[in-house]
Amino acid sequence: MVTLIDRRNPGETQRPRHPEKAHRPDQPMPAKPAWIRVRAPSSSGYLATRAIVRENGLATVCEEAGCPNIGECWEKRHATMMIMGDVCTRACAFCNVATGLPRPLDTDEPQRVARAVAALGLDHVVVTSVDRDDLDDGGGAHFAATISEIRARAPDTSIEVLIPDFLRKHGALDQVVEARPDVLNHNLETVPSHYVRIRPGARYFHSLRLLQQAKEMDASLFTKSGLMVGLGESRDEILQVMDDLRSANVDFLTIGQYLAPSSKHAEVKRYVPPDEFADLKRVALAKGFLVVAASPMTRSSYHAGDDFRRLKAARAEEIARAATP
């Protein structure tokens, strides 16, 4: 559970974190099953990671989105950097990132992200962002600059970007792909029938086409997307999304349980048991994804470094099989 009132900086007047949700009726908050619960973070590794993030004045999606895996990931110094501020121009029904008018871009942020990546000694880093519909390029150039700075300061670190949809931002995707990240991720989040309710600022087929275009621009680029379940979708709808993603030549699929950040967010319709995740993983692999991560606690960046190594190995094996007479 999170508060809907948020004090962004010391001394700043309290204001709604989600003004668009503040007057909505409360949704039921069903008790979490045993397989969902996690320990509160408190390890020395967690505290060290938090210190580095704070020293560099950075936002992380781990904190802003209230990720349940933050304790485990930060203990291993795996933090997902969130660039372009901590206020989003969208108001998705599932998301805990603050909604409002963002501040101007901080041109020093790419360098600070790179310094933090080097200080953390990361083998693999995930960089994501809020949606910036207020910017002419949606932040494409800022992503590219961040990738470039990380390459300069941490040349051995593989880079995964989790990008927004760049809706009506011509050329933004080109800037990101030309900066040559190792993995390009854009989450579809949910099935098409739920977009108006869950992801009202986005368009399902635009997001799908974005992933397809990225692969068309650079066939060597690994592409990735993710789904939440437990929002009332049917199994057939999930399988159709899998087919759509494979038609877009997406390599890597993540599937995780939706958890409501508060009673004002979209309702959890069902907690999906672990055996159903295992079944969805089996089906997705049979459909041709190189790697599938599916479990109640799976999130886009969860174990991303290990998964990237699996992804590279799976592609090498695929290429070897194709070359065998």
Topology (SSEs and partners):
Blueprint: E1 5-6, E2 15-16, H1 44-55, E3 59-60, H2 61-64, H3 70-75, E4 81-83, E5 87-88, E6 98-99, H4 109-120, E7 124-129, H5 140-153, E8 158-162, H6 172-178, E9 183-185, H7 195-198, H8 204-217, E10 222-229, H9 235-247, E11 252-257, H10 274-286, E12 291-294, H11 304-323
Parallel strand pairs: 4-7, 5-6, 7-8, 8-9, 9-10, 10-11, 11-12
Antiparallel strand pairs: 1-2, 3-4
Sum this structure up briefly.
Strand 1 (5-6) and strand 2 form a beta hairpin. 37% of the residues lie in helices and 14% in strands. The chain is of the alpha/beta class and 325 residues long.
What can you see in these coordinates?
- This protein is α/β, with parallel strands linked by helices and about 325 residues long.
- About 35% of the residues lie in helices and about 15% in strands.
- It is built from eleven helices and twelve strands.
- The chain has an eight-stranded mixed sheet with strand order 3-4-7-8-9-10-11-12, with helices on both faces.
- The model is unreliable at about 1-10 (pLDDT under 50).
Radius of gyration: 19 Å
Q: What summary fits the major beta sheet?
A: 8 strands, mixed
Which word captures the global form?
globular
Helix content: 25-40%
| Helix-and-strand structural type | alpha/beta
Order of strands in the sheet with most strands: 3-4-7-8-9-10-11-12
Strand-residue proportion: 5-15%
User: What is the string of helix and strand elements?
Assistant: EEHEHHEEEHEHEHEHHEHEHEH
Q: What's the rounded overall pLDDT mean?
A: 89
From the N-terminal CA to the C-terminal CA, the straight-line distance is: 57 Å
Number of helices: 11
Q: How many β-strand stretches?
A: 12
Low-pLDDT residue spans: 1-8
